[in-house]
What does this fold into?
Amino acid sequence: MQNSVNQQVIDFTADYVGQPPDSISDSTTYSSIGIEGDDSLVQYLVELEQFFGLTYEDGDQNGIEIVGDAVRMIERKLG
It folds into this structure.
């Protein structure tokens, strides 16, 4: 069973790209779902972090290539 942050990130991402949640997993690459390039990734992360009540900081996109990377970043920021 997936934890709530994990499922929330998957659900948010599915809605963001207009795909069903069951088509996205921790190992889904952002480029495979149309979030390509720094500008697209930063915009996605800004909205994702706002969803969790967090604030985007410069560099948050560093090392984010798959959905699981964003889950770990959100979990870290939530403490």
In short: Helices lie at 4-17, 37-51, 67-78. The mean pLDDT is 95. DSSP finds three helices and no strands in the chain. The radius of gyration is 11 Å.
